[in-house]
Amino acid sequence: MKQSRYNHLFFSLLLSLIFFLSFSSHSDVVAASAQIHSCEIISSDTIKISGTIEGIQEPIYLFEVKSWEKNITNPIAEIPVTGNTFECVVSLESRLFSKFVVGTSDGLGGYIAISEAKFLHPEGLATQTDPFPNAESKKGLLTNASMMEDVRELGVKHSLVNLDLGQLLTNGDMPISFDGTTCYINSGMLYGYDAVLKSLSQQNIVTSLVLLATPCPYPIVAQDTQATYEALDMQNPEGVKTLQTLIHFLAQRYTRSDKAFGQVVNWIVGNEVNNPSEWNGSQLSTEDYLANYADGVRMVSTAVRSVYSNARIYVSLDHCWNTEVGNRINAMNLLTYLYSQLNDIDWNIAYHAYPYLLNNPATWTDPVTDEITTDVISMKNIHVLTDYLAKNQINNPDGSLKRVILSEVGFHAK
To answer: Which of 25, 154, 323, 374 is the most exposed place for a label (fewest CB within 10 A)?
Structure first.
């Protein structure tokens, strides 16, 4: 009986000691912190990551996290530390779209992150660095292959072209490859886009390309919701790699200096993304939908600007602003969210300032206000959008103001 009591006391003390050591080790790790100050491409195949660290003597490691991954698992390198600074050089191979995190052992057989994630700036790889072209006038038109005569007759100098990524990936007969991924695209469909875009560039027209998606043989959309277009799926590894491959290919084809296949300088991700039930079909929660869209914008930016450093990336909004009418997402909140997630890259706004009622062309009679709380931003009160961006300092990383283009605006001809 006495021996049993001693055994019980012994094991209690042992468990207490184990708990204390585990808790102390974990607490020390949590107290440690690191900050990545620079994550840059220093050559065509090399990345250099540097920063500072405080409060830890344990080895620290560099982790790569793909867009569809949530946790850190296996380190890609141990980071040498000098004083409270560190620098690490690793291969760029298959890591252009990844984010990087500093972590250390959690004392329990795994790892814990001790820094925020940092992405690469893809412009370091760009071979196309021509200045952004200046348009000869503000006159613009949403165009397709059947409208080339209208374009010439009207003297248009801005054009908007819709491109369905899903259609381009259907009945594929032409292989394209990037970063270890190969997919097949429809060459006939591609040559059709070539013809339109080349005709526009020959007339010195500044062209914006809207990237849309429908279901196809590759898992690039999350669900087939029967919406006009579907939201990109940024959580499916095969789908994401396919999108990266295709958009990188399009950037290489349509940003050449010789404009051999036409030229695209503005890249718009989706259409009216604050209206997912119609234009960006998804069964995701609002929170997940926004996170998924932000990942898509970053992916497009990386793919395009790694080829053409001065390309401009846009998010698309309809004229509904501070409202959730028709199952919309509040556009003002959407912009605020995107800025919180994408404040390290350049992106801009493609706005559709249609009249309050689409069938009433007298936009000067729109029942809108000049306050930030207005339900709708039309041509009557378009300044509300630019005022909001300026007041809340929703700027690009270099401090420049975000650009606003009216990629769609039209009036019903009664």
So the answer is: 154
Q: How many CB atoms lie within 10 A of CB 370?
A: 10
Determine the pLDDT at residue 31.
62
Torsion of CA 252, 255, 256, 258, to 10 degrees: 150
Handedness of CA 273, 279, 280, 285 (dihedral sign): positive
Count of CA atoms in the C-beta half-sphere (13 A) of 15: 6
Enter the tokens of residue 166.
């899903």
Helix (H, G, I), strand (E, B) or coil at 90: strand
Distance between CA atoms of 264 and 161, rounded to whole angstroms?
A: 9
- Alpha-carbon span 45 to 90, nearest angstrom: 9
Tokens of 307: 């080829």
When pLDDT is cut at 50, 70 and 90, the band that residue 414 belongs to is low
pTM score: 0.91
Supply the DSSP symbol for 282: -
Type of residue found at 391 = K
Q: Cite the beta strand spans of 92-213 per DSSP E.
A: 99-105, 111-113, 118-119, 140-142, 158-164, 174-178, 181-185, 206-212
Question: Which ranges in 284-328 belong to alpha helices (H)?
Answer: 286-305
Q: What is the 3-state secondary structure (H, E, C) of 353-383?
A: CCCCCCCCCCHHHCCCCCCCCCCECCHHHCH
Contacts of 386 (CB under 8 A, 6+ apart): 404
* pLDDT at residue 26 tops 70: no
Find the Cα–Cα–Cα–Cα dihedral 133, 137, 139, 143, rounded to 10°: -30
* Residues making up the chain, counted from first to last: 414
Q: Are 79 and 127 in contact (CB under 8 A)?
A: no
Number of C-alpha atoms within 13 angstroms, CB side, residue 148? 13
Phi then psi dihedrals of residue 258, to 5 deg: -85, -5
Q: What confidence tens digit (pLDDT) does each residue in 389-402 have?
A: 999 999 999 999 99
CA distance 77 to 95: 14
The pLDDT of residue 224 is 83
**What is the DSSP pairing of strand 60-65 with strand 77-79?**
antiparallel
State how far the Cα of 208 lies from the Cα of 91, in Å rounded to an integer.
34
Structure tokens at 129: 């660095």
Among 208, 207, 237, 222, which Cα is nearest to 166's?
A: 222
CA distance 347 to 309: 13
